[in-house]
Amino acid sequence: MGKIKEPENTNTKVEELAQNRLDSQDQYLTTNQGLRVSDDQNSLKAGPRGATLLEDFLLREKITHFDHERIPERIVHARGAAAHGYFQVYEGQSELTRAHFLQDPSVKTPVFVRFSTVAGSRGSSDLARDVRGFAVKFYTQEGNFDLVGNNMPVFFIQDAIKFPDFVHAVKPEPNNEIPQAASAHDTFWDFISITPESMHMIMWVMSDRAIPRSYRMMEGFGVHTFRFINAEGKARFVKFHWKPLLGVHSVVWDEAQLISGRDPDFHRRDLWDAIEGGAYPEWELGVQIVEEEDEHKFDFDLLDSTKLIPEELVPVIRIGKMTLNHNPDNYFAETEQVAFHLGHLVPGLDFTNDPLLQGRLFSYTDTQLSRLGGPNFQEIPINRPIAPVHNGQRDGHMRQTINTGRTSYNPNTLSGGCPFQAGQDMGGFTSYAERIDGQKVRARSKSFLDHYSQAKLFWNSQSDHEKTHLVKALRFELGKVAVEAIQQRMLIHLAQIDAQLASRVATGLGMDVPCWEGVQLNLGVPADADPADYQPTPTRKDVGRSAALSMANPPKVGIKTRQVAILAADGVDATGLTTLKEALSQQGAIIGLVAPHLGKIKTSSGEAIKVDASLQTAASVLFDAVYVPGGQASVEALKQEPDALRFVHEAFMHCKPLGASGEGVSLLKAAAHGGAEALLSSDGVITSENTSSLAELVTGFMDAMEQGRFWSREKPLP
Ligand code: HDD
């Protein structure tokens, strides 16, 4: 992949990290003490065949360090990939907030962004059906601000005290540690089936949002309601959104499962390659603003993280743009050691009383203490703010800073009172003076009890194919559940969301939808509470639709970075291939020439061209579209390859654009399972046996690529 644009070196954080980089090119091998090593291949022995000597400090240092290379993986979000970049606001937001990084459009605030899956281990597949983490660290001039969000705007639970239960339920089951990175098992659905507050999130996780095409093509959400506070002290509620400029795209479940085998690093590789190739991913930062006096005007509670604010009620205003333009130098040093925390905040922002948010405020620093080994994790280069750090905190494991002077307390006179406290006018953080007056209770607000209306809103807002995918996902997940009572309870919940949804899922399970009457749902009501106070309220009648919740109509943004497989063998039509490659490259698409073997193939004009992948190393699931150029010998050779026929068939099944010219059309016919004519007349299959109209054909193929997928090919699902 060639560079489209030179990487911009505009990132002050990346520059700051330079002092910690180490390049060993043209250097001697040394110990950690700087001693040059003469033999790194043999340990010190009593004779060439004798025992190894305890004295061998070279051996011991090397092995000791190796023995301690691993740190605990994150308890959730263990698998991730990250990149550096910058954020710029479009225009000053002083009316909304006094946050410095949101004032001046000329300021480029460095960011480090880590994307992740939630349930799987560090080595699990990128393509698990799961929520994706979307954590952004802004290195602002006022200190670090971490926006630790997901690619879904709501969450499974309303109160942080349920988080360990939720995570234990979704993680591999503790007796046999099965299954890895999957929610399709009994403990997850057992928990969910008695946790009605999860139903809205379940709709999102069973939708294709849970299997993104790329990290670059996901939305991000801060989830909670936060506060913006301006210089006059006026506060407003705010919800944060990230809108990808490439639109929101997903793969289909069958494809996701195949990718997990073919390339478990699919998302990680995609992000890396895009940045290396200069196709920098971009997101706009959007905000939904609610005036404090409007807090109670919604039929849901702004403090409830299982609810979103429909964009039709409060529009998303796009206030700035984030660009990722620099890959990390070292995965462990940066991506693994980065520590995010909602409590990393800057003036102009503040929390709300969302009970999920409040609990998170405890968890994130706490977890770093064991994950990164002590209280000095903020000194690790990737976590260091670019703003100066001065305080009386001292010592602890692995302290790096050499604090000078006698005082590490405040107030003091010996250091003239330094470091000084900063008032608000000097950039000091002050908490929003929210009035709080309440009895100490363990309770859930009744305003949190409508668990089904927004789940229905999501279902209503999906297009037909999205609904079908959601039904299929539930059939898959619940189909993997062994205990029938769990499946029944889930069907009861689904029926509260939509009768058709429940009956379609039930058909797949070979069950009937049980009626609610007489079924005892244990909803986890506290021991001495009145169960009546915890019953979900019925789904609202007036639930409409919200276009923003569907992925069906992504913006037309061209085909830049879209991957095209060209299937060819010796004798491929030289003119056809050149026309296609030139047109695709001009639009920024990435081409992979896939042939029966690696090395080179000869075109019809005798030119030897390099093959990018063989039919053994590639698969259609790693591409967005497939094209078969003409050339009698080439196509005849491909027809003899079952892998080539599968390549085409799979791409067709996954509703991807297929193109073929000249003799290439006959490969498509040979690969058709449901009849050649049906395949050729399907949407998104662009073919012409007549090579004189090649340019037109290629344009049609690229239009199809821009459209993405052709869902009309899917078999209707009862
Ligand atoms: Fe969390 C990591 C996002 C609820 C406790 N969380 C973590 C990461 C993301 C989120 C993106 C990975 C950060 C990284 O890349 O290093 N978490 C969320 C969102 C939530 C949420 C959007 C709900 C709105 N989380 C949540 C709760 C708790 C935690 C309720 C605990 C009470 N989360 C953690 C953690 C993790 C974490 C255990 C594991 C690794 C880490 O923090 O650094 O503290």
UniProtKB/TrEMBL annotation:
Q: What class of enzyme is it?
A: oxidoreductase
Q: What GO terms fall under cellular component here?
A: cytosol
Q: Which organism is it from?
A: Spirosoma arboris
For this protein, the parts annotated as crossing the membrane are none
Describe the function of this protein: Decomposes hydrogen peroxide into water and oxygen; serves to protect cells from the toxic effects of hydrogen peroxide.
Q: Which cofactor does it need?
A: heme
Return the protein name: Catalase
Provide the active-site residues from the annotation.
77, 150
Task: Give the Catalase core domain ranges.
Answer: 30-418
